[in-house]
From TrEMBL:
Residues 1-21 form the signal peptide. GO terms for cellular component: external side of plasma membrane. One of its GO terms (biological process) is negative regulation of alpha-beta T cell proliferation. TNFR-Cys repeats lie at residues 60-100. Disulfide bonds join C61-C76, C79-C92, C82-C100. This is TNFR-Cys domain-containing protein.
Length: 162
């Protein structure tokens, strides 16, 4: 009878752990040693797990890296590099990633899931002789090109606005 009770208790504990997550609180992480340790603040990561009477030792993120949430991570995230039609509108700090914006003459083809970051930019269409720009492109839309009389040179340079 006692064995059946302990087996049920053990199974309940496993189910509870799977259902409700680790035994640590919201401001703690589970160390490799199985101890709940205090998480590090934004801008820093774990240098050394807590043990005994010693609390978690945190280290600040180095230049070119960041941590934008309190965590129990051991390494910071690499800062984003703005390239290929993007420019830096906000520099990366130890607490937040680089913010990139679309350069004039380009438009964003693909945004991140949260619609806050452009993942792929393309150069605005340029017209050839016998074509013209229908409307000016912007950072989110290409410049549509239309045909004109084949011997007419109404080609206007691709432009964009903010």
């Amino acid at each position: 009878m006692k064995s059946a009770f302990l087996t049920r208790l053990y199974i309940f504990d496993i189910c509870a752990a799977l259902t409700y997550g680790s035994k640590c609180g919201q401001t703690e992480y589970l160390s490799a040693a199985g101890v709940c340790c205090a998480i590090c603040a934004i801008g820093s990561v774990v240098l050394k797990d807590c043990h005994g009477d010693y609390s978690t030792t945190c280290k600040p993120c180095s230049k070119g890296t960041f941590m934008n949430v309190p965590s129990g991570f051991n390494s910071c995230f690499q800062c984003k590099v703005c390239e290929n039609g993007l420019y830096i509108s906000e520099d990366c700090t130890t607490m937040k990633d680089t913010v990139c914006e679309v350069l004039d003459g380009y438009y964003c083809m693909n945004y991140s899931d949260d619609k806050r970051h452009c993942l792929l930019v393309m150069k605005h269409s340029e017209c050839k002789p016998g074509e013209r720009i229908q409307t000016r492109g912007c950072r989110t839309l290409n410049s549509p090109v239309e045909e004109t009389h084949p011997h007419t040179s109404q080609c206007a340079p691709s432009t964009s606005h903010l």
